[in-house]
Every structure is written in C-alpha cells, then in structure tokens.
Amino acid sequence: MHDRDYGALGRIGIVTPQANPTVEPEIGLLLPSRVSMAVARCVSRGEPRQRLLEYLERLDETLERFDTMPLDVVGFACTGSTYLVGQDAEQRKLEALEERFEYPVVSAAQAIDAALKHLGARRVALACPYPDWLLAAAHAFWEERGYEIVVGGSVQPDTGDTRSIYALQGASAGRAIREFFGGVEADVFLITGTGMPGLRLLADLTQESGGPVLNSNLCLAWHCLEKAGVPLNDRAPGGNFPLLGGWTDGIDRL
Question: What's the average model confidence in pLDDT over 25-38?
Fold first, then answer.
C-alpha cells in the first residue's frame, strides 16, 4: 500500500503513440480498483515506419514528461516499434531506461511474450490491423521467439499509414478476424496492435472459442500489474479469462 489519495495499490505509467485513442480506455478498464494510470504520448512527424522507430528511439524523452511523478512501472504501448527493431535492441533500450529512471519499463511485445509463456502456448493464431510490411515483421518476430504462427492475417493489409488503425471499428474488424481464426487450432489466439478497439471482440471471441484470446492492451495491463507487484483483487483471472477477469461488464461504459 502506498500513502496516496489515488492509486494506493499502484500507479502505472503508460506511453502511447500520439494519435492512439484506444490504449487509455482499454487499460483503464482492465486495471483493478485503487490502481491509477498516468499517460504520456510519443511524438514523431516521420513517415509510418520512421515514426514507429522514433517512438522507441526517443522513449527517454517521452518518459521525461512524467518528471518527478513516482511510478511503480511504465508500459510502452506500441508493438509496431518492437517488431521493427527486434527483441535484442529493444531490450537494451529498456534496460538503459530502467537504470536511468529507476522503475521497470516493459513493452507491449514483452507483455505478450510473458503472457504466452504464462499460458504455456507454443502455437499461436495471429491477427492484426497492420499493413503487410508490419505484419511480416510481427510474424518474423514471434517465430524468432520460438512460437509457431499457425495463421496470420491483417484486416487492412494495404493501408498506407498505420494511423488509420485508429479509425477501425471493432465490429467490422471482428468479421475479418473471425474468418482468420475460423477452424484454426491454436494454443492462443492473439490480436496484436494497441490501437484497434479490441476488448469487446476479445470477450466475444473468448466466449465463442472457449480458448484464450489475447490482445496487446490486455497483456500489457496484466504484465504491468505483475511487474509492479499489484494484487489483482477485482481483476483476478477466472473462467475463460486466464490473465485478468471481471472487466467485461464495463465495456459498454467505454
């Protein structure tokens, strides 16, 4: 317990891409009671690929925006950056940031990896809202991590700007994702990308499949809580939700 009026059980910092409208509402819903969230936004004026690279390259500048705020952990809510630079380069960057800022810094991709390991998953069905070049990077990233990608598809493979992800609606994307996942046998069904609204789809697919369905924001919220040593309380796992439970009734309030 912390001596705080708000966030007595934990205060989590989240870094999100500049135009992303999805991270705050989804992670805010997933966090347990008495855990607060503070958000800083990455900024870049580069073209899509360069923008994603700069989000990670300049992460130290973004963390400086939290100034002296005490944080128990920071989550970097951008999978695309990790897929482009690779695990080793990202790990070196995050370790340097942890040493400088003196709190854990974890990425959404690290959180997904931790969740897959937690669930003992090896065979993964992958869906995303990425352009083809970023889907290819994601596919290669997870194979290099030792996972078998049994199917991989994008709901908008021809998009020219990754920011178009933020205009997607979960219902329309869900129809394509159901097609990707239909009849597929996998240990986990993974929807990667923090910008596409996904919690309602995740909840529906979980009920339909009876198996674990994850998205980037769910994994990041869970891993941040784990890193910070925060008790899950009203977000304890249960039923078909092996990471965090108790949040589905709140989707209509987002």
Answer: 98
pLDDT digits (tens, 9 = 90+) for 161-190: 555 555 556 667 788 888 889 889 999 999
Of the candidate CATH numbers 3.50.50.60, 3.40.50.720, 3.40.50.12500, 3.40.640.10, the domain formed by 10-107+217-247 belongs to 3.40.50.12500
> Quick one: average pLDDT of 10-25?
96
> What pLDDT, in 10s, does the model give residues 48-60?
999 999 999 999 9
**Alpha helix positions (H), 13-169:** 23-30, 48-57, 59-63, 79-85, 87-101, 108-118, 132-144
Residue 195 and residue 167: Cα distance in Å, rounded? 9
Cβ burial, residue 128 (10 Å; 0-12/13-18/19+):
buried
HEC secondary structure over 101-142: HCCCEEEHHHHHHHHHHHCCCCEEEEEECCCHHHHHHHHHHH
| Burial class (CB within 10 angstroms; exposed 0-12, middle 13-18, buried 19+) of 235 | buried
Task: Give the C-alpha separation, 174 to 160, whole Å.
Answer: 21
Query: Please, where in the chain does CATH 3.40.50.1860 lie?
Result: 111-215
Average pLDDT over residues 80-101: 97
Q: Per residue in 35-44, pLDDT tens? A: 999 999 999 9
Query: What's the pLDDT score for residue 104?
Result: 98
What is the CATH code of the structural domain delimited by 111-215? Answer: 3.40.50.1860
